[in-house]
Amino acid sequence: MTSLALTELTLSHFRSHKLARLSCGPLPVAIHGPNGAGKTNILEAVSLFSPGRGMRRASAEEMTRRPEALGWKVSGVLQAQGQSHEIEFWSENGAARSTKVNSKPVAQNRLAELSRVLWLIPAMDRLWIEGADGRRRFLDRMALSFFPNHAEASLTYEKTMRERNRLLKENVRDPMWYGVLETRLAQTGAVIHENRVATLAFLSDAQMQAETAFPTADLELIHSEDAMPADSADLKSAFEASRFRDLAAGRTLVGPHRADLYGVFTAKGVPAKDCSTGEQKALLISLILANARALAVQIGAPPILLLDEVAAHLDSARRAALYTEISALGAQAWMTGTEPALFDSLTGPAVHIEVTESAGVSETKVIPRT
Questions:
Q1: Is 161 left (phi over 0), alpha (psi -120 to 50) or beta?
Q2: In the structure, what pLDDT confidence band is assigned to residue 227 with cuts at 50, 70 and 90?
């Protein structure tokens, strides 16, 4: 199996970092420092090396360093498929992000041909106890890692649904106005649903391959309606049948946008939403690792992992189990924590980085470990 790693990273006027240069080779990266020093900003920069908006879903303007607001640039060397690729991202004066690979402009979604990046951030810790929107995004991000067409299908579906909802709110009743929209919704909705179902199957198989006793989750895709139609023809019929009800509600009430991800702690048979905070965190980590394991089989290399404040809510045994899993997977993991001691059980070669803040400027320093 080949390796996938970001071996060089440079940030210029990105978030809190005026200038930061990191050289880490294909090794795991453990970043420590006080809250607010800029650790997560480094992980966000790494998340840009994959398709999508990055782990914070931020606009290009939001990523610029304040108060200068001069624009920003992130560049790095990506080792993928046995080759080195120089990749650059930048934005000037709040303009949309631009991307180059080996000095050639490319669309952001083309990065799927080179790189896959998975992440777990503190905002996801409440996944099981908050609304279904977050769980759908979580599942769709995993589906995108397996199926690059998932992003286009999702964007087309959302845009088409907004058009249909506009007709519903305006109380348009002429079927002619709905026909084309519902056909497009059915086609893209079926792709979304098929990708989600396949993703859950991949995760189920991959969880069984864990190297440690990390907890596993039984996952199920559920819908607000009785069942999700099996194919695009059935889904189109469902949109047509629901039109009268949708007119009354002023919005579309059937389709994959109404799905939810239901999880159960396998060993205890307890719904994830009812588990302890530590158990919920452990289940999330288990799913990210399963995603990485399944993806490694599909693309021939483990993805890059971003684990922000990963040690929070984990006892020492589970921290050790996590590091064992990362080592067994052979993935480059970028991890953050407030104290260097949180990474004491990270055995084997790794790069340790301290991030501090002085006069509003984040500073990085590689810490030698013997």
A1: alpha
A2: low
pLDDT tens for 271-295 read 999 999 889 998 999 999 999 999 9
Residue 122 CB neighbours (<10 A): 14
Confidence at residue 361, expressed as pLDDT on a 0 to 100 scale: 67
- Calpha distance 176→179 (Å, rounded): 6
> Token digits for 279?
């158990």
Q: pTM, whole model, 2 decimals? A: 0.92
Task: Give the chain's domains with CATH numbers.
Answer: 1-124+300-370 (3.40.50.300), 129-274 (1.20.1050.90)
User: For position 41, what pLDDT does the model report?
Assistant: 96
